[in-house]
Amino acid sequence: MTPGHRITVEPSDRPVRVVHGGQVLAESDRALVLRETGCPARYYIPPQDVRLDLLTPSATHTYCPFKGTASYWSLPDAADLVWAYPEPEPDVAAIRDHLCFYEVEVR
């Protein structure tokens, strides 16, 4: 870990919901919240709580030295809207295969 850089992962204490274009894409009371220095809190949702049937795998992959390599999924009108870390770094292993969205409603 880089000095001064910190990542924590813990269960969210509130339910989360993801809506895009009026359609619910995910709803969960089992999300994990990842807090990382210099970044907004991100909610990682178990795949069982996501409408995977609406998502199309993308060719996009990005690398983060703290989390690992991310894979992305798209909607017809929103490229790379969703990402996950299939093999995350050990410090954030809890987010393995959980999906994250840019816009999440926390209730």
UniProtKB/TrEMBL annotation:
Task: Look up the domain of life of the source.
Answer: Bacteria
* InterPro entries cross-referenced by the UniProt entry: DUF427, DUF427_sf
* Domain DUF427, chain residue ranges per copy: 16-103
Q: What is this protein called?
A: DUF427 domain-containing protein
